[in-house]
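Revision sheet: structure tokens.
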Amino acid sequence: QEQFVESGGGLVQPGGSLTLSCAASGFAVPYYDMSWLRQVPGKEREWVASIAGRETRTLYADSVKGRFTISRDNTKNMVYLQMTDLKPEDTAVYFCNAGWRSGAFSAWGQGTQVTVSS
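Predicted:
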């Protein structure tokens, strides 16, 4: 059973930084592309960033390019999202899942809330 546990969210002022973590399990994590997505209440889940399974290739949504960095540690089945220069529009619940530019599995974690506000 695929499982994702996100952590690291919080309240931060505009311009601040946060690093999110995702512990993935229940599948061969190192062999899968992984993505971060975010959702604001009442809106569709939005793709944020992806990282390839066995290589360093990454891809970012235009809205976060240059500010966010996705990375992974395949020895620990962990995926990270380093967020800098945060803006109020980055406020959302952040989720991770397998897949390139999408969530490949129907199982979702509880997400981690990021709130950017002064």
